Amino acid sequence: MVQSIMGITTIAVPIYADSLGASPFLLGIIGGAGGLMNSFVPLVSGALSDRFRRKGFMTFSMCLCSLSCLLYYFSEDPFKLVAIKMLESVSLASFWPIVEALISDASGENLDESLRKFNVSWGSAMVVGPFIGGGLISAFSPKAPFVFALAIAAFVGSASPALVKEPRKRPAAAGSEGRDSSRKNGAEAPIAISLASIFLFSSLGGIVFSLFPAYATNLGIPAYEVGLIMLAWGVARVATFYGSTEIEKRFSKKGMFVAGSSMLAAASFLIAKSLDFYSFVACFLVFGFGGGISYSASISSILGRWSFSRGYAAGLFESLIGVGYFLGPLMGGAISTYGTDSPYVFGSFLGLAVLAIQIAVYAKRPSSNRKR
User: What is 2-160+176-366's CATH number, 2.60.120.260, 3.30.300.10, 1.20.1250.20, 3.40.50.2000?
Assistant: First the structure.
């Protein structure tokens, strides 16, 4: 349910800001402000949740989210949306590391399977979020999605203390750090590849989240169709999450990283060349598959590396995503001064650069480490 809030605001904030007269550069600033919070708040939240009860953090984050939705509704100045976006991002950035840590704590040896189910769950919510947001905008007004998101946040915040079961924190086993250290020694290259992959899918996601809804509506595409386009993105990503275990068995993590970067680069270029609803749907299907593959491989690598400190690992993962969400919209907004399709051309080149880095790193690895 919480991820549906992000899906709703993802489409609603750019369209609402555009209706208030925001320029593409300001849209990038708004998106980048949220990414800035995501770049460090998850790390702090995750580390603190390893020491204190996690349910309290969940309730507090939903209170902040409710407040941000309320402020969105009453704001009439596009520049004020920058500060509100920061508040919204603080709330969600505090929430996700805690949920990921709770799931990891309860998963035992079945981490990959637990993450697959978790990814399918939040991905499904992200599927319907933009569609709901676009439908509410078309049926009522650009402000209507914020009322709906407020109701969700208030419900989750009030219900989570009773519904969430927090397992007792267990001290790390004596050999756990050693096991992780051995993974580090043998998996340095995959972690480097994970970092590049996280930066790519989060940067391109930040560009699309911040700029595409307004870009598409300015091409004459109705808001509800923009929601359907992003629905296609979400469906493709959920399908990838659902099949991630089989994909890894068939192609290995190496194949997942390479395929994800290739698809993201291709999709970004095709977005720049598309002008109508159906071509955008095709582009976003490819974008969703690429992002889903990259996300699944990355989160498994990061959480598996620091099994003795799940909150810290989850916070680190979300913070790395936040760096991309911060830099992506800023770069996209600045580049959009050369043309409204320029951010997506840039995204394609970024994808090719990351792909080249990943291939180069894999090529340098000892052959004994490649067999995974």
Answer: 1.20.1250.20
